[in-house]
Design a protein that fits this description.
Elements lengths: L2 H25 L19 E2 L9 H13 L5 E3 L1 H6 L3 E2 L6 E10 L2 H6 L9 E12 L3 E2 L16 H8 L4 E4 L5 E3 L4 E4 L8 H15 L17 H20 L8 H11 L8 H29 L1
Parallel strand pairs: 1-2, 7-9
Antiparallel strand pairs: 2-5, 3-6, 4-5, 8-9
Helix pairs in contact: 1-7, 1-8, 1-9, 6-7, 7-8, 7-9
């Protein structure tokens, strides 16, 4: 296949991937969840034992600080009764840590009819309710469940070769996936922790997408703060990039629901820019071109050897 024809084929694939993700978002992509098994080993990502959901907002900071101060090795939390329901017992003398849940309440129409004075009050009220939770290190009778292990035999050679050719330092371990600009390293959970092999490569490509922005590579501005429009654009860009390369490598015929859910979780930050996802797609294609160029460089080096 000629270079021009290959290039056009890639463009067609990338347009299809982008359009399918947009369609999934418009249909309601659902809530995003990490594509690896979370065992609560990271105190920075506190998890509720009963619901298996991560805590949100200020509760994350509160429980992280509590775990750090007390030296708890994991981030698994629950109320006294939640632990009791599991057959575990909070040890005598242990002190709980406060978490807050916010609830909204719409004023009933009958309230308006009963008292004209209520009409000057907001139609929706917000209530905060506090709970005390205990870390699993504070209870007896609990053993964390073993997560399924993805066999090494499930690795996909063509994806392994593609990622290796990028020349990016990849470190495995922990329960977080991220790119650290200061050391120019990608950190990702071990292969065995992932729900399936394609999920592993999708996340690895996402983080390598961030790494492509380093000054000695594509030199993108990676200084956007968490929650900002610039940060959201970068996240959407590299997640689209991940979906595009997965399609290139034949890892998934259609974009995985993970891709649409993750992008949907950031698209609201850019709600003022209706063309945001198309801008992200253009940037993603630039990264994809760079990644494919690294493959050509590796092939030339092998040929010269």
């Amino acid at each position: 296949m000629t270079t021009d024809r290959r290039r056009q084929t890639q463009v067609d694939i990338y347009e299809r991937v982008t359009n399918q993700i947009i369609a999934a978002i418009e249909a309601g992509a659902g809530d995003y969840r990490m594509p690896w098994h979370h065992d609560g080993s990271a105190i920075t990502t506190p998890v509720n034992i009963a619901s298996s959901r991560t805590y949100r907002g200020v509760n994350i900071l509160s429980l992280w600080a509590a775990a750090h101060a007390a030296g708890y090795p994991t981030g698994i939390w629950g109320t006294y009764h939640q632990w009791q329901a599991l057959g575990a017992q909070v040890r005598k003398g242990e002190h709980g840590h406060l978490v807050v849940f916010w609830k909204t309440h719409d004023r009933d129409k009958t309230d308006d009819q009963a008292d004209d004075a209520n009409r000057d009050e907001p139609a929706r009220s917000i209530f905060a309710r506090g709970y005390s939770v205990f870390n699993c290190a504070q209870v007896d009778g609990y053993t964390p469940p073993e997560s399924p292990v993805l066999p090494e035999a499930k690795r996909i050679n063509r994806a392994e070769r593609f990622c290796a050719a990028l020349g990016i330092d990849i470190c495995h371990g922990g329960s977080q996936a991220y790119y650290r600009p200061a050391t120019d390293q990608v950190q990702i959970p071990r292969f065995a922790c992932f729900r399936d092999a394609v999920a592993y490569y999708a996340v690895l490509l996402h983080e390598c997408g961030h790494a492509s922005g380093a000054s000695h590579r594509l030199n993108r501005d990676l200084s956007g703060r968490f929650g900002s429009a610039a940060y959201a654009m970068e996240e959407c860009t590299v997640e689209l990039l991940s979906a595009m390369i997965c399609a290139d490598l034949g890892l998934s015929v259609e974009p995985r629901p993970d891709h649409a859910r993750y992008i949907a979780s950031w698209i609201d930050v850019m709600h003022s820019d209706k063309l945001a996802i198309f801008t992200a797609a253009s940037k993603a294609q630039e990264i994809a071109d760079w990644m494919h160029a690294q493959q050509d460089t590796q092939n030339e080096a092998r040929g010269a050897g």
